[in-house]
Amino acid sequence: MSDIDADGLPSGPFCPRCGGELDREILPERASLRVALVCPAHGAVSLADPFTRGGA
Ligand SMILES: [Zn+2]
After folding, report:
1. 38 C-alpha to center of ligand 1: Å?
2. Among candidates 35, 40, 37, 42, which has minimal Cα distance to 17?
3. Ligand 1 centroid vs 12 CA: distance in angstroms?
4. C-alpha 48: how far from its chain's center?
5. How far away, in angstroms, is 26 Cα from ligand 1 center?
6. How far apart are the first and last CA of the chain?
7. pLDDT digits (tens, 9 = 90+) for 9-21
8. pLDDT recorded at residue 18
9. Is the pTM higher than 0.70?
10. Res 41: pLDDT
11. 46 alpha carbon to ligand 1 midpoint, in Å?
C-alpha cells in the first residue's frame, strides 16, 4: 500500500486507539496555527505546532 494518497500527500498519522487515519484540522490561534489530528471516532488525538518551536 502506498503511503501517498490521492491528493499527493503522505497519508496521515493513525489513531493510536482504533488505527483509523486521522483528519487534520487547522486551528488558527493568535500567534500561530495549530494542526489538530482528529479521529472521526475518538475526536482530537493530538495537536502539533508546525509553525512554532520551543517553549513549554
Ligand atoms: Zn480512533
Report:
1. 8
2. 42
3. 13
4. 7
5. 19
6. 37
7. 556 689 989 999 9
8. 94
9. no
10. 94
11. 11
Q: Cell 518551536: give the residue.
A: 53
Q: For residue 25, how far is its CA from the centre of ligand 1 (angstroms)?
A: 15
Look-up of cell digits 502539533: 48
The cell for 6 is: 490521492
Beta-bridge partner residues of 37 = 24, 46
Q: Which residues of the chain, if any, have pLDDT below 50?
A: none
Q: Pick from 51, 53, 52, 26: which is nearest to 37 by CA?
A: 26
What are 25's three cell numbers?
484540522
Residue type, 34: R
Q: How far apart are CA 42 and CA 15, in angstroms?
A: 8
**Average pLDDT over the chain, rounded to whole?**
76
